[in-house]
Design brief:
Strands 3-2-1-4-5-6-7-8 form an 8-stranded mixed beta sheet, sandwiched between helices. It has 2 domains: 7-167, NAD(P)-binding Rossmann-like Domain (Rossmann fold), CATH 3.40.50; 180-273, ProC C-terminal domain-like fold (Orthogonal Bundle), CATH 1.10.3730. It is 48% helix and 14% strand. By secondary structure, the protein is an alpha/beta fold. It is built from 10 helices and 8 strands. It is found in: Cytoplasm. Catalyzes the reduction of 1-pyrroline-5-carboxylate (PCA) to L-proline.
């Protein structure tokens, strides 16, 4: 990381915040972490927990405030933090992982609360919890190079990072990698159910589906060929795979539905911004 031991205030430790926390704690150089979450138990010596902003010790000044609450709770969280941190807030930057909420809207919330704060955004996914995340990242011009590097490295510590030049591109990142694990989990779920339907035991169906998806993912990560080439390589003419793909690649099947699914996620991301 740009700073070997940055201080992080993680606001919210639900599904995404919790996944990021697990990933950071498992990394080689975990940051100093305070978690602000009224529902989080303080049972791990590797980080500290406060229930509210007022409980943040006066001796703790975060380099980065990672905002991982529900979008509707963003303004309340930022307002309470600015009030509780006081002058310390002037040296903090906000790293938001909220879908839809723009850097400008979050910066205005901080300004209205009495403190100008630079805002950066990341769109991670839940595989961050096992160090295999994929994040889109955008740094607003108001953030310093050091702040941008710390935030980038925080995300890099829990997976891969793609930096986008335009903030609006994060909506597409949301539809591809942010929501993408759920698409893969759905495929695993459907393969398992199909295997059981055609007579395999549930435990065998589970192993077959999951190992197949894991193996295909390994090939995509390690081999130089693109996805289309890998698909063609495993598809013998008039063979079993070709028969299955003839169903999945019908005009109204995957070629139509997958882009529509991504667009639905993009649209919802834009709606959450308002």
């Amino acid at each position: 990381m740009a700073s070997s031991h940055p201080s992080i205030l993680l606001v919210g430790s639900g599904k995404m915040g919790g996944a990021m926390l697990d990933g950071w704690l498992a990394s080689k150089t975990p940051p100093k972490i305070f978690v602000m979450d009224r529902h989080k138990a303080n049972d791990d010596a590797r980080f500290s927990v406060v229930k509210t902003a007022e409980e943040i010790p006066s001796s703790f000044t975060p380099d980065i405030i990672v905002l991982a609450v529900k979008p509707a709770a963003a303004e309340t969280a930022i307002t309470s933090l600015v009030k509780a941190l006081g002058s310390r807030a002037s040296s903090c930057a906000i790293l938001s992982v909220l879908a839809g909420k723009t850097c400008l809207s979050l910066a205005e919330m901080a300004k209205n609360a009495g403190q100008a704060m630079p805002v950066l955004r990341a769109m991670p996914n839940t595989p961050t919890s096992v160090g295999a995340g994929m994040s889109g990242f955008f740094a607003s011009p108001e953030a310093s190079k050091t702040q941008a590097q710390i935030c980038h490295d925080l995300m890099l510590a829990i997976g891969e990072v793609v930096t986008v030049d335009k903030e609006e591109d994060l909506a597409t990142v949301t539809g591809i990698s942010g929501s993408g694990p759920a698409y893969v989990f759905l495929l695993a779920e459907l393969l398992e159910k199909a295997a059981v339907k055609y007579g395999l035991p549930a435990d065998s169906a589970r192993r077959l589906a999951r190992a197949t998806i894991y193996g295909a993912g390994r090939m995509l990560q390690t081999l130089p060929e693109d996805a289309e080439t890998l698909r063609k390589n495993v598809t013998s003419p008039n063979g079993t795979t070709a028969a299955a793909l003839s169903v999945l690649m019908e005009e109204n099947a995957w070629p139509k539905n997958v882009p529509e699914a991504v667009q639905a996620a993009r649209k919802r991301s834009d709606e959450l911004a308002s």
